[in-house]
């Protein structure tokens, strides 16, 4: 039996890749897509997709679910839309696989409680690329020994949220093992606001946005006379697609929310 998949954000950079991934997958069926405005009746009406892509386009999640009964909703939209999409999907007994970043801690807690109550799988993955998951795992390990750390994340200049979901997740994983400390000189002062980056439990996170970049992060650890750099580069959005397919299959076996692929690989 195929897994019935719906995708929110099909015209986006990630959404379009995910459409191709699901269409090519022999265990999945793309039953519908969700957009925020009327752009056509089916994907085939859009120039960017071939005529064989006949999944209908909806602008309302309730109508989409009623008409096409998806098992899974993959969301690749934006930080403003994703929370409501996730909530609506859970309410309609559709399992969310969320790649969109920008959740608050309170939203994650609320969605986790909802998924638990409904006994429904839900994956919120700040990064689907296996190399990025390994970077985060290695950074967590390194922080046990080298607690002075700064994160530099670098993305394309169309990105809406800063810091990236991956940088936040990396800092949270490091926080689990690192003795809390304020870094840098105790009396340091910024002469231009923001010069030292965002502060997370004493760590600093720096966000670079430039055309030409895709998604890159380095985690720098400083020690006595030494520097360790752990770096990951996504060179294209195909780097995320095996993770998307993995999550769609995995979420069908789950009955609660998981935040971060490091918990299930
Ligand atoms: N978890 C991961 O591995 C990755 C996550 N991302 C995240 O995925 C999200 C999307 O990234 P991109 O594709 O680069 O952005 P994008 O801007 O290219 O695409 C977003 C799409 O969502 C659509 N959209 C906006 N509001 C909507 C709504 N209410 N309903 C349906 N569609 C809506 C827009 O029309 C647009 O086509 C971002 O939050 C980004 O951070 C991006 C890359 C990898
Ligand atoms: O917006 C992006 O492009 C990406 N967003 C995710 C994030 O915020 O970490 C994942 C990846 O870095 C690409």
Automatic annotation (TrEMBL):
Superkingdom in the source lineage: Bacteria
Name of the featured protein: 4-hydroxy-tetrahydrodipicolinate reductase
Family: Belongs to the DapB family.
Listed InterPro entries: DapB_C (IPR022663), DapB_N (IPR000846), DapB_N_CS (IPR022664), DHDPR_bac (IPR023940), NAD(P)-bd_dom_sf (IPR036291)
Alphabetical keyword list: Amino-acid biosynthesis, Cytoplasm, Diaminopimelate biosynthesis, Lysine biosynthesis, NAD, NADP, Oxidoreductase
Positions with a binding annotation for NADP(+): 41
Pathway noted in the entry: Amino-acid biosynthesis; L-lysine biosynthesis via DAP pathway; (S)-tetrahydrodipicolinate from L-aspartate: step 4/4
UniProt-listed Pfam families: DapB_C (PF05173), DapB_N (PF01113)
Transcription regulation listed as a keyword: no
Binding site for (S)-2,3,4,5-tetrahydrodipicolinate: 156, 165-166
Family matches, as PANTHER family: 4-HYDROXY-TETRAHYDRODIPICOLINATE REDUCTASE 1, CHLOROPLASTIC-RELATED, DIHYDRODIPICOLINATE REDUCTASE
Protein role: Catalyzes the conversion of 4-hydroxy-tetrahydrodipicolinate (HTPA) to tetrahydrodipicolinate.
Catalyses which reaction(s): (S)-2,3,4,5-tetrahydrodipicolinate + NADP(+) + H2O = (2S,4S)-4-hydroxy-2,3,4,5-tetrahydrodipicolinate + NADPH + H(+); (S)-2,3,4,5-tetrahydrodipicolinate + NAD(+) + H2O = (2S,4S)-4-hydroxy-2,3,4,5-tetrahydrodipicolinate + NADH + H(+)
HAMAP family: DapB
Compartments, record wording: Cytoplasm
Listed CDD domains: DHDPR_N
EC number: 1.17.1.8
Assembly behavior: Homotetramer.
GO molecular function: 4-hydroxy-tetrahydrodipicolinate reductase
Keyword NADP appears in the UniProt entry: yes
Residue ranges of every copy of the Dihydrodipicolinate reductase N-terminal domain listed in the record: 3-128
Domain Dihydrodipicolinate reductase C-terminal: 131-264
